[in-house]
Amino acid sequence: MIERRRFVRIPEDSAISYEVQPNTKIEEFLTRNISQGGICFFVHKFIPKDSHLKIKLSLKKISFYFEALVRLVWIKKDAHSERYEIGVEFINIPKEATEHLIAYITDIVERK
What we know:
112 residues, alpha+beta, Thrombin, subunit H
């Protein structure tokens, strides 16, 4: 099977808060995995594909926090609960956050 992902994903269980744009109620959950290009995490209710979300992510292992705008690329119902798993891609992320994210992911991959 050919790997279709452009970026390496690493498991990550950091706190994430999100709001579907334009400005809905802020929800919180934990990430499942993260890459330089996006994040996978769970949400409590269905969100339409291509929705834009404003996220706030705290990478607890390096004490780094950032905000970004993301686009929902895929969504699927979790078979074991009432939640949904989603994959989002970064569409607007601060340069400093990208640099920290790349360094963080590289460090974890190199330790394996």
